[in-house]
Write a structure and sequence with these properties.
The chain has helices spanning about 20-50, 85-95, 115-130, 145-150, 180-185, 210-240, 245-250, 260-265, 275-285, 305-310, 315-325; strands at about 55-65, 70-75, 100-110, 110-115, 135-145, 160-165, 170, 255-260, 270, 295-300, 335. It is built from 11 helices and 11 strands. The strands form 2 sheets. Strands 1, 2, 3, 5, 6, 7, 8, 9 and 10 form a 9-stranded mixed beta sheet that branches. It has a two-stranded antiparallel ribbon with strand order 4-11. The chain has a single domain, classed as 2-enoyl-CoA Hydratase, Chain A, domain 1 (Alpha-Beta Complex), CATH 3.90.226. Residues about 45-55, about 310-320 and about 340-345 have low confidence and may be disordered. The chain is an alpha/beta fold. The relative contact order is 0.18. It starts with 17 loop residues before the first helix and ends in an 11-residue tail after the last strand.
C-alpha cells in the first residue's frame, strides 16, 4: 500500500541586500557601455598613430577621394611664435610627400614675432622652389602684419592671393612693445636694483628708471633695429607683389590695416574669394582637374584621453607656458595688435 505525502516542497529564496542587489545590473551595463566607447576611441587613435608621421594627421578635405595627386592646405592660425610649431610640421609632412602638387596657405593670423614670421616665409618659399610647387594664399578673418608677411611666399605669381570679403589685412610694419612701470613702482617704494654688465643690458626693462640721456640712447638703438626689420619687410612684400613699385609700396606700408576691397584696390591681394576659390586656382596651377586632385589638410594627433573628453589635454598647459614666456620676453613683432603680449600661439 502506497502512502502519498501531503508535505509541500521547501522553497529556498536567496535575497541580495544592499546597493549591489538593487543597482548591480545597472552599474554593470554602465561599465560595459563606457568600455565600448573607450575601445572605439582607442581604435580611432591607434589608426591615426600608425600613420607615417605621428606628429601630423592627414585628412581628406574635398574633390576626388581616390586621386593620387594632392593639393595640401597648410593652416597658419593664431599668433606666429616660431620654433618647431605646427606650421613647421605641416611643411615637413609635405616635403616628405611626393604626391603633393600644390599648396594652399590658409592664413588666419594677426602676425607674431619677426623671427617666427620670417622662418615660416623662408621654409615655405624654400620648399615651393625645391619641389616647384605653386603656392596659393587664402586669407581668413585676419591676415595682418606677420600674417601678410608669410603670404608673400607665393613666388611672385599673379592671381594667387585670395581674401574673404570680411578679411582684414595689411598692417605692414614693425613694433617693439615697451611699457614703463618704474613710476608706478616708486609709489609703492619699490626700486629695480638689478646688477648688469652694462647700462644697455636692461634695455626694454619695464621697471628700470633711466636718465634722459640713457633713455634717448636706448630709443635710437631700438629705432635702428625697427627700421632695419621694416626694410626687410618691405623687400619681402616687393618680392611677393612685384607689381608694387616703391611709390605704391610706401603708400600701403604705413602700419594701416585694410579691408579686402581696400587691399584689392591697393594691389595687396589679387581676388576676393573663399578657400574653395583658392583651391580651384591651386588645382589649375598644378595642371590638375577636380577629378584628378585630392585636397588634404592636416591636424594634430589626438590621444586616448582627448578622444574620450573631446579636447586637447595638453593645450591648456602649453598655452599658459607660452603666454608667460611672451609676457616676459622683449622682442620685435610683425603684429596687428594694441597689446602683443596678450596673444599666444595656437
Amino acid at each position: 500500500m502506497q502512502i502519498e505525502s501531503t508535505q509541500q516542497p521547501t522553497r529556498i529564496i536567496l535575497e541580495q541586500g544592499g546597493i549591489w542587489g538593487r543597482w548591480g545590473t545597472r552599474i554593470a551595463w554602465t561599465i560595459a557601455g563606457i568600455s565600448v566607447l573607450v575601445a572605439l576611441a582607442s581604435a580611432g587613435a591607434n589608426a591615426q598613430y600608425f600613420q607615417r608621421d605621428a606628429k601630423v594627421i592627414e585628412q581628406y578635405a574635398s574633390l576626388s577621394r581616390l586621386a593620387a595627386a594632392k593639393i595640401a592646405i597648410v593652416d597658419v592660425s593664431g599668433a606666429i611664435m616660431g620654433g618647431a610649431g605646427f606650421s613647421r610640421l605641416q611643411l615637413d609632412q609635405i616635403e616628405a610627400d611626393k604626391s603633393v602638387r600644390a599648396i594652399v596657405l590658409r592664413v588666419d593670423s594677426p602676425g607674431g614675432t619677426v623671427s617666427g614670421s620670417d622662418e615660416i616665409h623662408y621654409r615655405l618659399g624654400k620648399l615651393a622652389k625645391k619641389r616647384e610647387l605653386p603656392v596659393v594664399i587664402s586669407m581668413g578673418g585676419i591676415a595682418a602684419s606677420g600674417g601678410y608677411y608669410i603670404a608673400m611666399a607665393n613666388g611672385g605669381r599673379e592671381d594667387v592671393i585670395f581674401a574673404e570679403p570680411a578679411t582684414l589685412t595689411g598692417s605692414i610694419g614693425v613694433i617693439i612693445p615697451h611699457f614703463d612701470l618704474s613710476k608706478l613702482l616708486s609709489k609703492f617704494d619699490i626700486r629695480d636694483d638689478s646688477i648688469t654688465s652694462g647700462p644697455l643690458k636692461e634695455m626694454l626693462s619695464p621697471t628700470k628708471e633711466r636718465s634722459p640721456e640713457l633713455a634717448e640712447r636706448e630709443r635710437k638703438i631700438l629705432q635702428n633695429l625697427v627700421d632695419e626689420m621694416f626694410g626687410r619687410f618691405k623687400q619681402i612684400v616687393k618680392e611677393g607683389r612685384p607689381k608694387l613699385d616703391d611709390e605704391k609700396l610706401a603708400a600701403v606700408a604705413t602700419g594701416q590695416i585694410f579691408t579686402a576691397q581696400q587691399a584689392l584696390d591697393a594691389g595687396l591681394i589679387d581676388r576676393i574669394g573663399f578657400l574653395e576659390d583658392a583651391v580651384v586656382r591651386a588645382v589649375e596651377l598644378a595642371g590638375l582637374t577636380e577629378e584628378t586632385a585630392r585636397v588634404v589638410k592636416y591636424s594634430r594627433p589626438r590621444g586616448l584621453l582627448d578622444e574620450v573628453l573631446g579636447s586637447d589635454s595638453s593645450a591648456g598647459a602649453r598655452t599658459t607656458v607660452e603666454a608667460f614666456a611672451e609676457w616676459t620676453t622683449p622682442r620685435a613683432w610683425y603684429l596687428c595688435s594694441w597689446w602683443p603680449a596678450l596673444i599666444t600661439s595656437q
